[in-house]
Amino acid sequence: MDLITQKKWDKAAPTFDLMAGKGAEERWEPFKRELFSAMQGNILFLALGTGLDIPFFPAGQSIQAIDISPKMLEQAEPRIADYSGDINASVMDVHNMSFEDNSFDQIFTSCTFCSVPDPINGLKSLKRVLKPGGELMMFEHTGSRYYPFKLMMDMMTLITSKIGPDMNRPTVENVTAAGFEITEVNHIFLDVVKTIKATKPAG
Amino acid sequence: MDKRIYFVIGDVLVNVAIALLVALVSFWLVSTNWNMMVAMWLMMFVGMLLAMLLALPAGILFGAMEVMLPMKLSGMLSGMVVGMWAAMQPITLSQAIGVGGTVGLISVVLVWLLNSRIRGVQTLVEN
């Protein structure tokens, strides 16, 4: 277990909903609902956090959720209880997941790979537990290739990485580097906020 | 751009507000004894810094990246224009306010236009 990352997010848990819970979630709600509407089969949701995404899940799904921070999952408990399906949440590090190989039909992430310390190995771990032909569905913010935004985000990351997420991750490239086949990239705001859909090659 | 009226108003409001604030700071700080280039670069940096700080409370209401990046652009451009102008010649408070507000509006419209070109499903290029 990566205790440094765990401590960072445990510390962020009490104020996380205040910082992320209104403006960002309302703004992103239509896009997240659309992405999550594809949920079916055996589902892993990575980095459940305080459960802000749970109201956007389609009803009646059975979802295995993990997060590195027990404090975050404590905050998520009321939302888990309110969900009209089954969410089994546990504390787990994406780099050391206890699931067997080829366990899940789909894996969903939401603003996760801005924070995973070793993103390519984290994605490789997801590939391990995803069934061949299974889908990786991501809602992420990444760095930008457009100036001056690229410069701004590189500068911001010097500060934000100490207390929360990196602002300049090349997540689309990381997904490819981890061995997934990208099927769709949809830019929602500039080339910064986006959905990424990928599959684990069948062979 | 986001067509929901709450976010349209929010985008305009926060960008004009930060550009005005940076214009006022530049007006009070910079005088004609300043080197023009120093004034421009310093006030650009101050504008970005102020925008980064104020994007936190603004983001609670109106969004994350959609607020932070345009605000930083507005702050940077407002500091650049008003800082440089104030170093070149004496300017009045109303001139600083007018230019600051206009820069904020222009910045948010630029981001909307850029976003309308970039957003949407991307064509995937085979490696």
CATH superfamily heading of chain A: Vaccinia Virus protein VP39
User: What's the average pLDDT of chain A?
Assistant: 93
Beta-strand portion of chain B reads: under 5%
Could you say which overall geometry of chain B the principal axes of the C-alpha atoms support? elongated
Number of strands of chain A: 7
Structure description:
The complex is a heterodimer of chains A (203) and B (127). Helix content of chain A is 38%, strand content 25%. Chain A has 203 residues and is of the alpha/beta class. Chain A has one domain: Vaccinia Virus protein VP39 (Rossmann fold, 3-Layer(aba) Sandwich), CATH 3.40.50. A seven-stranded mixed β-sheet of chain A has the order 3-2-1-4-5-7-6, sandwiched between helices. In chain A, strand 6 (181-189) and strand 7 (193-199) form a beta hairpin. Chain B is mostly helical and 127 residues long. In chain B, 80% of the residues lie in helices and 2% in strands. The radius of gyration of chain B is 16 Å and the shape is elongated. Strand 6 (181-189) of chain A pairs antiparallel with strand 1 (120-121) of chain B, so a sheet runs across the interface.
Q: What is the secondary structure topology, with strand pairs?
A:
The complex is a heterodimer of chains A (203) and B (127).
Chain A: H1 3-20, H2 23-36, E1 43-46, E2 62-67, H3 70-82, E3 86-91, E4 104-110, H4 119-129, E5 130-141, H5 149-163, H6 171-177, E6 181-189, E7 193-199
Parallel strand pairs in A: 1-2, 1-4, 2-3, 4-5
Antiparallel strand pairs in A: 5-7, 6-7
Helix pairs in contact in A: 1-3
Chain B: H1 5-29, H2 36-62, H3 65-88, H4 93-118, E1 120-121
Helix pairs in contact in B: 1-2, 1-3, 1-4, 2-3, 3-4
